[in-house]
């Protein structure tokens, strides 16, 4: 079975649904089976998205993407700098 990817909005919706079912007396295992997710995913999502609004989750994902893009740019700049320094010293 392939791995499914959920959008932050879907995750927050499922966490809210899970909390309602848990408050109704169901166990975490039962709730996760009903939602079609593993308990590990539930706990990881709860840690990452617990208490968030959908807009906050979207902003978080946008910031994570921007951070990854900037890290890539910094790595490329460092590589370019190292290449130029070697060329300047005459070590090809």
Number of helices: 4
Question: What global shape is seen?
Answer: elongated
How much helix, percentage-wise, in residues?
over 70%
So, CATH architecture of the largest domain?
Orthogonal Bundle
Low-confidence stretches: none
Order of helices and strands: HHHH
Biggest β-sheet, characterized?
none
* CATH-defined fold name of the largest domain: Arc Repressor Mutant, subunit A
| pLDDT averaged residue by residue | 90
Task: Classify the secondary structure makeup into a structural class.
Answer: mainly alpha
- Number-wise, the strands total 0
CATH top level of the largest domain is Mainly Alpha
- How many discrete structural domains? 2
Radius of gyration: 22 Å
Through-space gap between termini = 49 Å
Percent in strands: under 5%
Descriptive report:
- This protein has two domains: 1-52, Arc Repressor Mutant, subunit A; 61-92.
- It has 92 residues and is mainly alpha-helical.
- It contains four helices and no strands.
- Helices cover 77% and strands 0% of the residues.
Structure characteristics:
Arc Repressor Mutant, subunit A, 0% strand, mainly alpha, 92 residues
Short summary of the structure?
The protein is mainly α and 92 residues long. It has four helices and no strands.
Write the layout of secondary structure elements.
Elements: H1 8-23, H2 28-35, H3 39-49, H4 54-89
């Amino acid at each position: 079975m392939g791995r499914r990817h959920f959008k932050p909005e879907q995750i927050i919706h499922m966490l809210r649904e899970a909390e309602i079912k848990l408050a109704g007396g169901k166990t975490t295992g039962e709730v996760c089976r009903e939602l079609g997710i593993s308990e590990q995913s539930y706990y990881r999502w709860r840690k990452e998205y617990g208490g968030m609004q959908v807009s906050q989750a979207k902003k978080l994902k946008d910031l994570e993407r921007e951070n990854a893009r900037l890290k890539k740019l910094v790595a490329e700049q460092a590589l370019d700098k190292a290449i130029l320094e070697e060329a300047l010293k005459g070590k090809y």
